[in-house]
Amino acid sequence: MSTDQNKFQAIISHCKEYGFVFQSSEIYDGLSAVYDYGQYGSELKKNIKDYWWKSMTQLHENIVGIDAAIFMHPTTWKASGHVDNFSDPMIDNKDSKKRYRVDHLIEAYAETLPEAEGNAVLAQMDELLKENDFAGLKTLIEEKKISCSVSGTSNWTDVRQFNLMFSTQLGSVTDEASEIYLRPETAQGIFVNFLNVQKTGRMKVPFGIAQIGKAFRNEIVARQFIFRMREFEQMEMQFFVRPGTQKEWYEKWKEERMQWHLSLGTDPSKYRFKDHVKLAHYADAAVDIEFDFPIGFKEVEGIHSRTDFDLKQHQEYSKKKLQYFDTEINQNYVPYVIETSIGLDRMFLLTVCNAYEEQDLSTPEKADSRVVMKFPAKLAPIKLAVFPLTKKDGLPEAAQLLVNECKQYFHCYYEEKDSIGKRYRRQDAIGTPFCVTVDHQTKEDGTVTIRYRDSMEQERVPLTEVKNIVLSKIM
Ligand code: ATP
């Protein structure tokens, strides 16, 4: 199982150094598994969000978006099964008091074994998880003498369930206050609005509702940077279909979501599908789209066939009918649902890992290197950097005019400090696909030098063409 921890550490440092991601409340030593996005990170994140939103809503006539609240009526989570089932099996080491998610503990151990042996342990674990056999899981941990990384001992408690939802109080007077949860997924906001949207939007099954928003989970083992956070964002779409057609739609969405990932130009060998062994309480089929991160193949997105479970549960708990009258077959039914659910932060991490490249540019005469973020142009935080060659002779003014023309259309960056070479390197490090230099020749013949990030090639183009060149690559 090959991983590249050094590369991962270098990416984390780069994200901090160049204003992509900071630890939350860093001046107070941070808050575990909570992160802030900086000046370039927030742009990149927004561009990923927009790319997903546009592909889901604008490009699908039968999908509309909503923006539901984070707080929901507490019965929502009773109905959805989260109060009773949204938990992970945990085990504590009695000596160090450190708590582990059982699957993570066993997975970490399996990674230390030769591949075939490791896979056998994982298969055994999957079987026990599927059966909810907690005693069996503990026996497996003991038999394999799996130890705690802190105490080094195998002195374990029993395996127990631990609910991952955060709760808080609604209302100011303690006795009147009721316990509510921070939503652990955005999906339920869609289910409870199913009829509102269907009726007011006059939607016909099959149709979808998309949503982007924050979700919160009290993850026990929250490490690996923004891969697993306690506060994160999801981009989810629930697609409502006629019962009996869910298999077909599941396959279709599986394919379509993979195509979305590949449309960003990523090497297809870095992606794979992984079927779920243990299905969630609501699913009749589920698959993950995994990406080859420097820490190994890991889930970025899930496609789940959720049956009519959620709508039926809300119907039962709310006592309101959540049905659809299908005029084509003259029948009333509770639709089945195919869900596509991708973590925005994980997609961000994927984009950053896929873009990061350390290049040795040394020649026999001179040692040289660069770190370049090869973001797809449409996702790059800054699209165009404009440099006057010198700070005099009217060059800054001419460069500023170009920025003023282009900034209505896309994000530009103006810089006049240091050598052009240094300015290129700084833009490479934040992934700006185009740099333009305004020089003395510009004043004579109206041309500028455009320099391409990935090939580092330069050519002269008319100043008046710059806007269109950039626009043609980012649309
Ligand atoms: P995992 O197995 O990694 O905990 P999951 O299977 O519980 O994830 P889902 O409930 O299917 O995840 O959520 C859908 C998506 O939300 C995931 O594919 C992932 O991209 C994202 N996601 C889930 N939990 C987190 C988290 N703690 N931090 C960041 N993203 C998350």
TrEMBL record:
<comment type="similarity">
    <text>Belongs to the class-II aminoacyl-tRNA synthetase family.</text>
</comment>
<feature type="binding site">
    <location>
        <begin position="339"/>
        <end position="343"/>
    </location>
    <ligand>
        <name>substrate</name>
    </ligand>
</feature>
<feature type="binding site">
    <location>
        <position position="185"/>
    </location>
    <ligand>
        <name>substrate</name>
    </ligand>
</feature>
<feature type="binding site">
    <location>
        <begin position="227"/>
        <end position="232"/>
    </location>
    <ligand>
        <name>ATP</name>
    </ligand>
</feature>
<dbReference type="GO" id="GO:0006426">
    <property type="term" value="P:glycyl-tRNA aminoacylation"/>
</dbReference>
<dbReference type="GO" id="GO:1990742">
    <property type="term" value="C:microvesicle"/>
</dbReference>
<keyword id="KW-0547">Nucleotide-binding</keyword>
<dbReference type="InterPro" id="IPR027031">
    <property type="entry name" value="Gly-tRNA_synthase/POLG2"/>
</dbReference>
<dbReference type="InterPro" id="IPR004154">
    <property type="entry name" value="Anticodon-bd"/>
</dbReference>
<feature type="binding site">
    <location>
        <begin position="217"/>
        <end position="219"/>
    </location>
    <ligand>
        <name>ATP</name>
    </ligand>
</feature>
<dbReference type="GO" id="GO:0015966">
    <property type="term" value="P:diadenosine tetraphosphate biosynthetic process"/>
</dbReference>
<feature type="binding site">
    <location>
        <begin position="299"/>
        <end position="300"/>
    </location>
    <ligand>
        <name>ATP</name>
    </ligand>
</feature>
<dbReference type="InterPro" id="IPR002315">
    <property type="entry name" value="tRNA-synt_gly"/>
</dbReference>
<dbReference type="GO" id="GO:0005737">
    <property type="term" value="C:cytoplasm"/>
</dbReference>
<dbReference type="InterPro" id="IPR036621">
    <property type="entry name" value="Anticodon-bd_dom_sf"/>
</dbReference>
<dbReference type="GO" id="GO:0070062">
    <property type="term" value="C:extracellular exosome"/>
</dbReference>
<comment type="subunit">
    <text>Homodimer.</text>
</comment>
<protein>
    <recommendedName>
        <fullName>Glycine--tRNA ligase</fullName>
        <ecNumber>6.1.1.14</ecNumber>
    </recommendedName>
</protein>
<dbReference type="InterPro" id="IPR033731">
    <property type="entry name" value="GlyRS-like_core"/>
</dbReference>
<dbReference type="GO" id="GO:0004081">
    <property type="term" value="F:bis(5'-nucleosyl)-tetraphosphatase (asymmetrical) activity"/>
</dbReference>
<comment type="function">
    <text>Catalyzes the attachment of glycine to tRNA(Gly).</text>
</comment>
<dbReference type="InterPro" id="IPR006195">
    <property type="entry name" value="aa-tRNA-synth_II"/>
</dbReference>
<feature type="binding site">
    <location>
        <begin position="232"/>
        <end position="236"/>
    </location>
    <ligand>
        <name>substrate</name>
    </ligand>
</feature>
<feature type="binding site">
    <location>
        <position position="101"/>
    </location>
    <ligand>
        <name>substrate</name>
    </ligand>
</feature>
<dbReference type="GO" id="GO:0005524">
    <property type="term" value="F:ATP binding"/>
</dbReference>
<keyword id="KW-0963">Cytoplasm</keyword>
<keyword id="KW-0030">Aminoacyl-tRNA synthetase</keyword>
<keyword id="KW-0436">Ligase</keyword>
<keyword id="KW-0648">Protein biosynthesis</keyword>
<feature type="domain" description="Aminoacyl-transfer RNA synthetases class-II family profile">
    <location>
        <begin position="119"/>
        <end position="364"/>
    </location>
</feature>
<dbReference type="InterPro" id="IPR022961">
    <property type="entry name" value="Gly_tRNA_ligase_bac"/>
</dbReference>
<dbReference type="Pfam" id="PF00587">
    <property type="entry name" value="tRNA-synt_2b"/>
</dbReference>
<feature type="binding site">
    <location>
        <begin position="343"/>
        <end position="346"/>
    </location>
    <ligand>
        <name>ATP</name>
    </ligand>
</feature>
<dbReference type="InterPro" id="IPR002314">
    <property type="entry name" value="aa-tRNA-synt_IIb"/>
</dbReference>
<dbReference type="InterPro" id="IPR045864">
    <property type="entry name" value="aa-tRNA-synth_II/BPL/LPL"/>
</dbReference>
<dbReference type="GO" id="GO:0004820">
    <property type="term" value="F:glycine-tRNA ligase activity"/>
</dbReference>
<dbReference type="Pfam" id="PF03129">
    <property type="entry name" value="HGTP_anticodon"/>
</dbReference>
<keyword id="KW-0067">ATP-binding</keyword>
